[in-house]
Amino acid sequence: MNRQTLLGLSFISPALLAVVMFFLLPVVLTVVFAFTNMSTSTGILGGEYQISESDLRRLPAAGVSDEVAEMLTGAGYAVRPETLALFAADFGKDRADEFDTLHGGATFNDRRAMERALKDLRGDPIRVVRERKAAAELFRVSILGQRYPTEAEFQTAIRELGIPEADHAALTKAAYTGWTFTTQNFELLWELPATWRYALNSTIYVVLTLAFNVGFGLFLAFSTFYLPTRTAQTFRAIWFLPRILPPVLYVVMWQWLTWDQGFISAILRPFGIEPINWMRHTATHAWTFIVLINGCVGASLGMILFSSSLRAIPETHLFAAQVDGANRWQQVRFVLLPQMRWPILFITSYQTLSLLTSFEYILLATDGGPGRQTEVWALAAYHTALSNYGGNLEYGLGAAYALALVIIGILLSALYLRFFNFRDLVAKPRIEQ
Amino acid sequence: MNTSLKGNWLLVLAMSLMSAPLVIMYGFQLIDSISRPAPGGIIPQEWELTNWRFLWEPIDSARPSIWRVTFNTFVFASSTALLVCAFSITAAYALSRLNFPARRFFLAGLIMLHAFPTITLIIAIFIVLQFLGLYDSLMGVILVKAALELPFGIWIMKGFYDSVPWEIEMAGVQDGASRFRVWRELILPQVKPGLLALLIFSFLAGWSEFILPLVLAPGADAQVLATYMNAVIADDTRPDYGLFKAIGMFYALPVIAIYLLFQKRLMNIYGGGTKG
């Protein structure tokens, strides 16, 4: 390896490590997680083994025979040599012997029955209720609600219960509380009507906002182009601010403008218009403001890029058009606009991707409301996996939502690669040593 | 070409009307933070500083002190900016000027990453941080934010390196200096203005970041101004816009100061920006 190679690789390796950790790995993991049922209840690091009361009903569906399900249901408490030994250790051998003669070999379905049986002790009765409860617990053989940290411990427990070997595998699988691999997420996405609604919302959002961004960005660029420098600078500064203000503050300004005691309501009241929350009143209101909020940020990017490409157009073109008697509209339409094809294409392709995947401003402005009418796909992914009122965060399902966006992102950014003059970009360095 | 104000009065009028909502919002942002409007109205009634009370007393018991949160935000933004710059100056130089295997591949990867919407990875990153034990710590968010800003940083720095004339480098190599020495002593001084612009830009990006701290560090210990302000708003049953705006003002002051100081440089770099 020559020294330049060594220098090149060592210069790039820190960045490469960061990219692998926070780009490549997450992309791969998004694919993996999309095929799991990972959620808050399964945990992330793996689970335990547990059959709870409520699990019993779904056992037959999981391939466990009905008899086994019944065996798990009944026989909660049993008087057997092992349990009697436990009892003897805590409550004395005499009581254990007496209880053995009274109820040896018996089984009881619930704790009440077990405690009643314990009352039969005559020689040295257990009088305190709390103690009787503790004693009953010693005879418990049921595995319902018990947690077993490892598979081996769970299998030992079901073997002791006398569950037939044939059912062990299915029962163990059903008892696992950790996440497992599944294709359920995609079936669910396909079936849920909400999914289609989110896809439609995303389309509405991207198309409207993009139209506003490009159209208004062009308008701002052309207008400031024709204005005296000072005035142009003032307007540019006004429209540039939304881009650098922190999103949380920027959206609060809009919230103030639109809430039912805010600016719009206040100035409309003298005209007899009832105060309403202009941002959340109906879906149309919400969409209008979402497009405006995003659009004012996006239009400034268009404005900057379009302005700089306008400045690059030789002024002689404009003079020529003026001499020919073209009015301003004709100048814009036939001289300036045709030369803006590339910047427009660039902004369109670039913002399509970023709008499709961004949800920050919608989250802050309407949080998908009213109802779920402004819930776009990216926001649905966020709500499913990272924040919902139910409390059970479904990482797997959220990853499935995100996966769709990741795939679109990879495809579109590969397309984007073609926009650039790649050969120029990779021109060989001129020093070879 | 007619660029006088008089000849364009129609255009100026149209622009003013369209800019009015933004100007009104900026204006009242300032006014409302230091005054109290009439109940149900918008005209300021009394000038007062009670909206700024969050600076000297906690606004409610469960909330961390604003100074602690500001300190966190500063640490978050400046560490992110420094990391981005440190990784970008080397990687961008290698991609711009050095010959090494798979350079084409790395460049193609960089262009793709530059366009790739990183926010889609947040669910996986959330789980990666849990695995690494960095969840709910400032450290974790700093690493993630720096990594996600990195493609942009490298891209910008590569542009600055590309514009340095080859002759400078050739001369250095002719005189017998190693490539590393040429980079450090001849090329780095040339890209210093670019580096400063990237530093400022990344600092602002960190300062304004909201989603990453919200998802990756929701606890009170790692709270930054964005999540602090959002929590104050979310917890309020009756919106107190005076308070929100005062906090917002406090939060945005460094941003506005930096903008006024470095306007020209920032305009340049924002042209290649990724937001919205």
Describe this protein's structure:
The complex is a heterodimer of chains A (433) and B (276). Chain A has a two-stranded antiparallel sheet. With 433 residues, chain A is mainly alpha-helical. The termini of chain A are close together. Helix content of chain A is 65%, strand content 1%. Chain A has helices at 3-34, 66-73, 81-91, 93-103, 111-118, 129-138, 151-161, 168-175, 184-191, 193-226, 229-244, 247-258, 263-268, 283-311, 315-323, 328-336, 341-357, 360-365, 377-385, 395-419, 422-425, and strands at residues 77-78, 107-108. In chain A, helix 10 runs antiparallel to helix 11 and helix 10 crosses helix 14 (283-311). Chain A folds into two domains: 53-175, no CATH class; 187-425, MetI-like (MetI-like fold, Orthogonal Bundle). With 276 residues, chain B is mainly alpha-helical. Chain B has a single domain (74-270), classed as Orthogonal Bundle (MetI-like fold). Chain B is 70% helix and 3% strand. Chain B contains ten helices and two strands. In chain B, helix 2 (66-97) runs parallel beside helix 5 and helix 6 runs antiparallel to helix 7. Chain B starts with 8 loop residues before the first helix and ends in a 6-residue tail after the last helix. The mean pLDDT of chain B is 84. At the A-B interface, helix 1, helix 10, helix 11, helix 12 and helix 13 of A face helix 1, helix 2, helix 3, helix 4 and helix 5 of B.
